[in-house]
Design brief:
Strand order of the largest sheet of chain A: 3-5-1-12-9-10-11
Number of helices of chain A: 19
Order of helices and strands of chain B: HEEHEEEHHHH
Oligomer: heterodimer
Distance between the termini of chain B: 39 Å
Low-confidence stretches of chain A: 778-790
Largest interface: A-B, 59 and 54 residues
Largest sheet of chain A: 7 strands, mixed
Shape of chain B: globular
Largest sheet of chain B: 5 strands, mixed
Helix content of chain B: 25-40%
Strand content of chain B: 5-15%
């Protein structure tokens, strides 16, 4: 493979990493705009209340305070934080409701925004917040999504009767699930719920906004999709602006994981900048982040599976009740995508998915890396194992028998599955893990204090949301006289390594030197349209746009190079010329050639030459999801006296199509697996059921994985260039790694102790409870989707 | 004018990355704010503000400390090394920095300055650490992106390959 390509499949150095190890990389909070004020936001101490009166006079009078704003000063326009609605074709689903104002007159969770201050320094801004006097009229509260569905429950939004934020069906329901279950020879049901995992991007939310002399709005903030953000801001909130009035810059992003697909503090910064007439930087604390507006959505689910005795799955049903918190932002779409990925994994003629998304007086939940798949996998993979156990089948064989094959419907059923290496992933992973040696068979009772078990998870994930979202990306390459180039692409590097991968694709397709390509990104005035980095889409969709531009660049170089071969007395056509690693040469005789700068220079500076700089744009619109896959195997040891789970070994094989840069793919897999380990075992987000207050509001109480939690891991890449996918057959990898661990570990825990865990994280106290009660009777975190206790 | 503020505001000298820097501070100011806002060294990151995540780590007389829970005024008598002081003045990277690049050990990069300084302190103390010792030394530095694997690999690589060229400027 390496001879075939110059840069594809190679461990090329990340263009962003140099400044990150020297401390030179600039994030939003590192930026200073001359004259900039510091903005801070006053958050509600009450979970549900009407603001009867706000007196800001004392805050206004504090020296150093320049502007104080309340609900009276913000646009009378409702919006949703999620910017993705702007990429959804209308009509399919009312997936996002415009349900909140920039600052609230009625607060709906502890942490909702009441007022904001801009002051000369942050200390003054903080003092001013203390001087704002708010008189609240307390309203009845509702914190439980099932209680919220009760007709008598307090209403979070007047225009959402029954607290229903969204209700709908999986769009690809088929067959007759009811009669299929009646005819099924084996039936299994499993219910449970995931926790509200926090994104915990180390860079807390921040934004700088200012209006320049031409009355344009400038924003600096960490955005995963600034082009859609710009449109959303103009269409939904600041309707006196059009998209072109907004210039949005995203410098380095300190982690995203989906949180930056929604507006953060930008609207507040914009209003404060308008009121003060000066640039304003608004920042959040970690505590505010914990109590604030983004976490994984807790999805209470029941999954039922019917099968025949030969192990053929005949029916699957998935019921989801999701807690949206106080406002709707991504929680409906993640629930739908949960169905897409959970119900689209296996061949099955009868499928039913139903979703309810409910408002409560708790912090808004949102979209998080994996986007429904980790939530679904934890329930589905356990349900699958229950069926396998009833059939007496090896869970590996049961999955292999039922996974979808090429030509069957994909997870986006209107499009056939063009490629899958999932079976290969299962084989490779099982082999490396030693499944045959380690798995003792069903019903083998283990004894002693420390009990070991093994389990697996097999998943499919979208690469983009092609067919559902407007999956459009455009990119641009221009070549300078010295043969170097700018690759101008929208996405900001939030850590995933996309800029490096795109640089490799550009160098390979254009025939330029990798090190001579400079990346320009994260500025909406400069970059072409793109819907952002999410859904594991970037290498697929943006990658194809870059490859498209690169091919055009190479063709321009070939055409311009034709007369250059005259000095060798060669009369050649463009088709006979190759361009590679910055050198132009004859295919039939590579020794005849020259540096690409000779052509690039002439294109710009030679009077008698073309008079047109070598430059090209490329675009791509994805219409399917080029799904990627993963098979994961976990071995755990359960301490039956403490309830602690130790992961001894974790092996995962990923269907990557082609790894453009294996080192970066490994980075995604390692980082995702450890994030998934936190989701599985330690990351518990607790909302006080009495007050609605977030109890885990700091890193004292919320426990992400640390260095000492990392188990022995094997991250295996299964490479088989996929058709109809990204450049050179690449598929996505960003999200699936976070989805596998909880599912595989849950099955391994059952193998070890014979009890299934129904809620995440699988914390020691839950294990002890489960061990004592053998899964019977009420347990903390009960799911009432079907009345089944956890 | 607040009389307490008038009395307590004063010019302080910080020895930072081998140079003396003067700036006006107030007693309530945190070291992370002075380093970032007053001295313009934005490589030091604040991520939690409660001393839990390690992003704001600097070396104080060679010892890693969390600047988000350290009053600036207590650091005036000490030699401070921030991430900007890890490479040599001619720009030659510290072996740990080069190892982090070679292993692609940084993703979003926000934790990296703290990781590097904590690692530098470890290697100054224990030039040949085991994998377990690296994990223990970095247990107070949270990374949300990498899963720590490549970070630990990079520190071990720097330790085994490059100890001879190791030095931390104070």
């Amino acid at each position: 493979m390496s001879a075939e390509f110059s840069y594809i499949g190679k461990r090329m150095p990340r263009p962003d990493i140099g400044p990150k190890v020297t401390g030179e990389a600039k994030y939003t909070e590192d930026m200073v705009v001359p004259g900039m004020l510091e903005g801070r936001i006053l958050c509600s101490p009450h979970a549900h209340a009407k603001i009867k009166n706000i007196d800001t006079s004392k805050a206004q009078a504090l020296p150093g305070v320049v502007a104080v704003i309340t609900h009276r000063d913000v646009p009378d326009r409702k919006f949703t934080r999620s910017t993705m609605a702007e990429a959804e074709p209308g009509g399919l689903y009312p997936m996002e409701r415009q349900d909140q104002y920039v600052l609230a007159e009625k607060v709906r969770y502890i942490g909702d925004w009441v007022a904001a201050v801009a002051a000369e320094d942050i200390y003054t801004a903080e003092r001013a917040l203390d001087l704002i006097e708010v008189e609240y009229e307390l309203l009845p509260t509702i914190f439980d999504p099932f209680a919220a569905l009760d007709q008598q429950a307090p209403q979070v939004h007047d225009d959402a009767p029954g607290n229903i934020a969204f209700e709908g069906e999986y769009p690809f329901n088929c067959g007759d699930v009811k009669s299929a279950f009646e005819q099924a020879e084996v039936f299994a049901e499993f219910a449970g719920v995931n926790s509200r995992q926090k994104h915990l991007h180390l860079e807390t939310d921040a934004a700088i906004a200012w209006w320049d002399a031409s009355r344009r709005l400038n924003i600096i903030s960490p955005a995963q999709g600034a082009h859609l953000g710009k449109r959303h801001l103009a269409k939904r909130i600041f309707t006196d602006l059009s998209e072109g009035d907004i210039h949005w810059i995203s410098p380095a992003i300190g982690g995203g994981f989906g949180a930056r697909l929604a507006l953060g503090v930008e609207p507040v910064a914009v209003v404060l900048a308008r009121m003060s007439g000066r640039p304003v930087r608004v920042t959040m604390t970690r505590e505010e982040d914990f109590s604030g507006y983004s976490s994984r959505t807790d999805q209470h689910q029941t999954i039922r599976i019917g099968a025949q005795k030969d192990g053929t799955i005949t029916a699957i049903e998935q019921q989801i009740v999701s807690d949206s918190g106080a406002y709707l932002s991504h929680s409906a779409t993640t629930s739908i995508v949960n169905c897409v990925q959970t119900l689209g994994l296996f061949s099955c003629p009868n499928i039913l998915g139903q979703i309810k998304v409910v408002y409560t007086n708790t912090p808004t939940t949102s979209g998080f890396r994996g986007y429904g798949n980790p939530e679904g996998a934890f329930i589905m993979q356990q349900a699958v194992d229950i069926v396998a156990e009833k059939l007496g089948m090896d869970p590996v064989e049961f999955r292999l028998k039922n996974i979808r094959k090429v030509g069957e419907p994909s997870i986006f059923p209107p499009v056939a599955l063009a490629h899958t290496a999932l079976a290969q992933c299962i084989h490779v992973g099982a082999e490396r893990f030693g499944w045959k040696q380690k798995w003792a068979g069903w019903g083998k009772v283990k004894t002693g204090r420390h009990r070991r078990g093994v389990g697996l998870s097999v998943l499919a994930n979208c690469t983009s949301a092609g067919g559902v979202l407007l999956e459009h990306s455009s990119a641009m390459i221009k070549v300078m006289a010295d043969g170097s180039a700018n690759l101008i692409v929208s996405p900001t590097e939030m850590g995933q390594g996309i800029l490096c991968g795109l640089q490799q694709v550009a160098a390979e397709t254009a025939g330029l030197k990798f090190e001579n390509i400079r990346m320009v990104s994260g500025d909406t005035d400069v970059t072409l349209f793109d819907i952002g980095s999410h859904a594991s889409r970037s290498m697929f969709v943006i990658g194809n746009a870059v490859a498209n531009a690169g091919a055009k660049i190479k063709e321009q170089i070939r055409v311009l190079a034709v007369p250059k071969f005259e000095k060798w007395q060669k009369k050649v056509t463009p088709a006979e010329i190759e361009v590679r690693e910055g050198r132009v040469f004859l295919k039939e005789d590579p020794s005849v050639g020259f540096d690409v700068s000779e052509v690039a220079h002439d294109a710009i500076y030679n009077f008698g030459f073309a008079g047109a700089q070598i430059a090209a744009t490329g675009s791509y619109l994805a219409t399917d999801m080029a799904q990627n896959h993963q098979a994961a195997f976990a071995e755990v040891e359960v301490d039956t006296e403490t309830g602690a789970i130790t992961v001894l070994k974790y092996v995962v094989a990923h269907d990557i199509g082609r790894a453009i840069n294996p080192q970066l793919v490994e980075g995604q897999m390692e980082g995702g697996a450890v994030q998934g380990l936190g989701f599985a075992l330690t990351e518990d987000f607790i909302v006080d059921p009495e007050t609605g207050r977030v109890l885990t509001d700091s890193l004292f109480t919320y426990r992400p994985p640390l260095t000492t939690d990392v188990p022995e891991m094997d991250n295996l890449l299964v490479e088989d260039a996929a058709p109809n996918a990204g450049p050179f057959g690449a598929k996505g990898v960003g999200e699936l790694p976070v989805a596998s661990p909880a599912a595989a570990i849950a099955n391994a825990v059952y193998d070890a102790i014979g009890v299934r865990i129904h809620s995440l994280p699988m914390a020691p106290e839950k294990l002890l409870y489960a061990l004592r009660h053998r899964g019977e009777g009420p347990a903390p975190g009960a799911s009432r989707v079907t009345g089944q206790f956890l | 004018m607040n009389p307490i503020k008038a009395i307590s505001k004063h010019v302080a000298t910080f020895r930072i990355n081998g140079r003396d820097r003067e700036t006006i501070i107030e007693p309530h100011m945190l070291l992370v704010d002075v380093i970032r806002e007053k001295l313009g060294l934005t490589g030091t990151k604040r991520a939690c503000g409660t001393g839990n995540c390690g992003s704001c780590t600097v070396l104080l007389d060679g010892v890693p400390i969390r600047t988000c829970i350290c009053l600036a005024i207590t650091a005036t008598g000490s030699a401070i090394t921030t991430i900007e002081g890890l490479a040599k003045s001619d720009g030659t990277l510290h072996p740990l920095q080069q190892a982090f690049i070679d292993h692609a050990a940084s993703q979003c990069g926000f934790c990296i300055p703290g990781m590097l300084l904590a690692s530098a302190a470890l290697l100054a103390d224990n030039p040949k650490p085991t994998r377990a010792a690296v994990k223990r030394a970095l247990v107070g530095n949270i990374c949300r992106c990498t899963g720590y694997v490549k970070i630990i690999d990079a520190v071990l690589d720097a330790a085994t390959q490059r100890t001879k060229t190791m030095e931390v400027r104070t």
